[in-house]
Amino acid sequence: MFLKIMFRKYIFYLAIVISTVSCGTSRSLKHLPEISQYPLEIPAVVKKNDSVFLFKKNSFAKNKWGIWELYAEGNPLQIGYNSGALSQKMMQKQEDVFFSKVKELVPSNSRQKLLSKFLKWYNRKMYLNVRNDFQTEIYGLSQYSSDVYDWVAPKFQRSMYLHAAHDIGHAMQDLMMVGCSSMAVWNDNSENGELLIGRNFDFYAGDNFAKEKVVQFIKPEKGIPYMSYSWPGMTGVVSGMNLEGITVTINAGKSKIPLVAKTPVSLVTKEILMFAKNIDEAIEIAKKRKVFVSESIMVGSASDKKAVLIEISPKNFGVYDVPNSDKVICTNHFQSESYKNDRRNIKQFSESHSKYRYEKLQEILAENKKMNPQKMVEALRNTSGLNHSQIGYGNEKAINQLLGHHGIVFSPEKRLVWVSTKPFQLGEFVCYDLNEIFSGNVAAGNFSNGKLNIHRDSFADSDDFKNYQKFRIADREIDDAIKHKKSLSEDFINKYRNLNPELWIVHFKTGKYYFQTKNFVEAKKSFETALTKEISTVPEKENIESYLKKTNRKLR
């Protein structure tokens, strides 16, 4: 929903600014990266079938678990062209999904034009903050983008904008609405003493956006080979590991609304994977880059045998590295000394669901003294609250919110990685061996090491999960009824409640519906029930209390 929020709150105000400041926008739209230094062979893709595409050593293939596997190598321009040519159909499909959502949120043609102007203005300085080789790769990729969305911006600029979608989403969703969770263990907290890292990436842009996932294996002409897990058309890294055993994962933090895009965080982490062999080198890379949102980057290192948090924001920088520790936990608040007096971070810790998830991960580690990949996956799948309480499926206080894009587990010293398959983090976790893949001896479509896969969670086939899927459909129906003042039957309301009875928002939305229909007796009951549940954030609890007060006044 970030585009809707961004549009409603800021677009008209910024339109005035845009009308007076245009020269920077004009320059950015004319800018193209310097590509003449890179030789290029236009890829002649061989289509073996609908799931396997080849060009020399490069490939794009869908495995039996439904994950697309991309392998690309060469200079930045060649990698961009190879990736785009091989994955063109899926990349354009992803664009369709993303921009159809934009059109849904902004149906008016005039407002779409205004949004386009805003994006061009907002991203006008991005090219000044992104390495030329990264821009070159994005340029090559963008040559295979659709012509349909040229109303947004030219292909190259549009591809650059899409690489900042994660950052803009975090910034505009009330500055942080998603809740990623990650943890790393080593020494006494790990079964074999080796470093082990797990994370959930809870960036959500709709169910369709998360349907097609890509695990990428990139072998650059200059730099370290690496893998990442994201979506078609994404060259940045939200979760990844390189051949030296450096891992990166990103967790959003609280920050001001940025007035101009600079370096997308996913390109900072890409740079770390391509050029860092240890934690110190990763820190130096992160220090050099100007970002426009606040983010925690968990960096794991096989050579250092530990993990740290690099905490970056537009005006601050910190590293959380606890001496003599054998674990680090990251949710969505900063922990380094640099942010101990930061008022936004303090508010985030006290009012959001970040602290609760942090405590839940501590509880999981206390109950599992020796973590291994199987236990790490089980932790990422956990839907319960503290002390194993039932807090409702889809609660933002859960480690697995049943909404996230993916879960991932790294064993850096072994160069092994496990990635989740649908539904959510409940499907089989597929294993990949980076040493094997980058040896060049693995055929397209057979990159995974299936013998080390972690089995599908039984919850995915349970009645409770089936009810959760039904709940998500009913939840959209009640949202629509509230928005458009439609009538719902009591039978529907009762079924809606029973599909996910422990989730606070079920009772809150029911209360809102009754309040709107002037059934204040039932509204009061619903709001009071909601307040007995585990509510995700302090502002949401205050909102329910406010509704209850208004309801009580109506009943007097």
What percentage of amino acids are in beta strands? 15-25%
Using only CA atoms, what is the Rg?
Answer: 23 Å
CA-based shape? globular
Low-confidence residue ranges: 1-21
Q: Helix- and strand-based class?
A: alpha+beta
What is the makeup of the main sheet? Answer: 11 strands, mixed
The counted number of beta strands is: 17
Strand order, sheet with most strands: 1-2-3-4-7-8-9-10-11-12-13
* Mean pLDDT reading: 90
What is the count of helical runs? 18
CA-to-CA gap between the ends?
37 Å
| Helix fraction by DSSP (H/I, runs of at least 4) | 40-55%
Provide the descriptors you would attach to this structure in a database record.
556 residues; alpha+beta; 11-stranded mixed β-sheet; 6-stranded antiparallel β-sheet; 17 strands; 41% helix; disordered N terminus
Q: What does this 3D model show about the protein?
A:
The protein is α+β, with helices and mostly antiparallel strands. Helix content is 41%, strand content 17%. An 11-stranded mixed sheet has the order 1-2-3-4-7-8-9-10-11-12-13, covered by helices on one side. The longest helix is centred in the N-terminal third of the chain and has 30 residues, at 76-105. Mean pLDDT is 90; it is low at 1-21.
Gist of the model:
The protein has 556 residues and is an alpha+beta fold. It has helices spanning 2-20, 23-30, 76-105, 109-122, 132-142, 155-162, 165-172, 265-275, 279-288, 343-351, 354-367, 373-380, 434-437, 463-484, 490-499, 504-516, 520-530, 538-555; strands at 46-49, 52-55, 58-62, 68-74, 181-185, 196-201, 214-220, 226-230, 239-242, 246-252, 295-301, 306-313, 316-320, 327-330, 406-411, 416-419, 430-433.
